[in-house]
Amino acid sequence: MIRSSMGGYDVEMVGGCWVYSDTKTRVDPNGLTRPCKKCGKDFGKIDGVEVDPCLGKLPGVISACCGHGKPEESYIMFENGINIEGFLLSDGD
Fold this sequence. Notes:
Structural class: mainly beta
Order of helices and strands: EEEEEEEE
Largest sheet: 3 strands, antiparallel
Helix content: under 10%
Number of domains: 1
Strand content: 25-35%
Distance between the termini: 36 Å
Number of helices: 0
Radius of gyration: 14 Å
Strand order of the largest sheet: 1-2-3
Shape: globular
């Protein structure tokens, strides 16, 4: 079985479609519809681009994800071509 995660939730491929592992409901191919598993904020768009609700829009960044409770899945892609993957973010604790 093919497995991955989206927005902090485990997902799996079933019958050619991605579904959430916990509810077996289909993942919307147009974007994330469940709130972030870590912070509970809804995913949204800024200037037409889907952004990580935990991070928002960051200057000099093309794309970023905090991992939503899975730090090994976090990444940041800078405009200058530098990419960083799998880092820990402080949650204020």
